[in-house]
Amino acid sequence: MFLDKAVIICKAGNGGDGAVSFHRQKYVPKGGPDGGDGGNGGNVYIEADASMNTLINFSYTKRFIAGDGEKGDKNNKYGKSGKDIILKVPRGTIVRDYESGAIVADVYNEGERILLLKGGKGGRGNAKFATPTRRSPGFSELGEKTKERKLVLELKTIADVGLVGYPNVGKSTLLSVISAARPKIDNYPFTTLTPNLGVVRYHDDSFVVADIPGLIDGAAEGVGLGHEFLRHIERVRLIVHVVDVSGSEGRSPAEDYTAIRKELKKYSEKLAGLPEIVVANKCDLLADNENLKSLRNKCRKKVVEISAATTQGIDALIALMAEKLRELPPPGPIEFEPFSLEEKVAEEFIITEEGEGVFRVSGSMIENLARKVVLSDPESFRWFQKVLRDKGVIAALKEKGIKDGDTVRIQDIEFEYTA
Ligand SMILES: Nc1nc2c(ncn2[C@@H]2O[C@H](COP(=O)(O)OP(=O)(O)OP(=O)(O)O)[C@@H](O)[C@H]2O)c(=O)[nH]1
Ligand SMILES: [Mg+2]
Question: For residue 121, what are the CA distances in angstroms to 205, 320, 335?
Fold first, then answer.
């Protein structure tokens, strides 16, 4: 079964909370703080697996949640890190952010592993908060919480050459005679329903050819089957345009050529702009040269005459493909503006007056901080206030005219302001 697009939900693990603990020893009344740090949450990676050629697995399982980090413990014991998740996908899979459509990764190289979502950092244990003046901190940090992300996986097959043409012109037959691939071949349109790949060997060279379902009129607008599959030749470097020159189905080969060119252009200028070899197939059925002539006139290019059935002209075609590919720039992953799925933590904050003497502070940095601190703990709270002062929040509140006894709100917490 073939699937080349899937929407999934991923989440990195939360960080584990830091521990609050004090060293206990016989006859020692109160030891120093020894609460260990929480473990980091597990990461979500994506990895190219050369043995895969479909995203079908992602139609069964759609949620991928990495493990949470464990809490820290007494005796300075660190919490265990959460378990990572590695999503295995075929080479050529592109990952997009669902909301923005921005490209996050192109899983291009064999075995390549890319970090998609980083696990939350574990919170620091109380041992880390000890200072000469604060010998017994009674608080620790909470682990960082992570968010779910909706992602789109999109397979764009990696091949050097793409075979295009009308249905039933002999594309799959051609692939079967130039490579070890054994695609289904039959005498009716749309025998091929999903892309086939074959490796062609030529002396010490080898290259990959992709055979896709036939294109028909309107394919580029999604009318025909072909449109769905044009994405699998978006990454090729060379187009081999196969025409049934015998006109065995009553169409004119020259018009077939123009129609397919139109479809390619409608789909993408880039695709239509790729170097092209025009192949006249089924030459064994030709009674005269009329069709060949009109095809040549129409495409204004050299036309390579072959018969996939008798293998006439095949060796010359392989040599020509290899030669063209050698001249073309080497393949590589697509270029894109790096897009990070990590939440951007903006340092800015805004203060809004929600009522008489009630001030709300909002902004991702301040809100993250509020999530991390244990507000029920007086010491943790004092520490939080110190950070608010350091970050300029208190000064900004004063500027807004805050008075003793007024209320400050940050996310779902609320406290009374004292200068
Ligand atoms: N006489 C002759 N028949 C051929 C030649 N090449 C292919 N055929 C026949 O044409 C028919 C279609 O071949 P396919 O290779 O399935 O064509 P296709 O372009 O892959 O077709 P779709 O997958 O439907 O788009 C089959 O019956 C083949 O045997 C050729 O060179 N000469
Ligand atoms: Mg076919």
Answer: 48, 55, 31
Residues of the chain with confidence (pLDDT) below 70: 217-226, 343-347, 375
pTM to 2 decimal places: 0.79
Cβ of 380 closer than 6 Å to ligand 1, yes or no, is: no
Helix 290-299 crosses helix 253-267 at what angle (to 10 degrees)? Answer: 30
| Cβ-Cβ contacts under 8 Å for 272 (sequence gap 6 or more) | 261, 264, 265
Q: Is 341 in contact with 250 (CB distance < 8 Å)?
A: no
256 CA to middle of ligand 2, Å? 16
Provide the pLDDT for residue 347. Answer: 66
- Which domains does the chain show, CATH number per domain? 1-155 (2.70.210.12), 161-327 (3.40.50.300), 350-416 (3.30.300.350)
- Ligand 1 pocket, residue 40 CB under 6 Å: no
pLDDT of residue 219: 54
Q: What is the pLDDT of residue 365?
A: 79
Which residue's CA is the closest to the ligand 1 atom numbered 14?
Answer: 170
* Candidate from 169, 173, 196 with most ligand 1 atoms within 8 A of CB, to mutate: 173
Say how far apart CA 295 and CA 289 lie, in whole Å. 10
Torsion from C-alpha of 206, 207, 208, 209, nearest 10 degrees: -120
- By DSSP bridging, strand 238-244 and strand 276-281 are parallel
Q: What is the pLDDT at residue 337? A: 84
350 Cβ neighbours under 8 A, 6+ residues apart: 361, 362, 363
Q: pLDDT at position 383, please?
A: 81
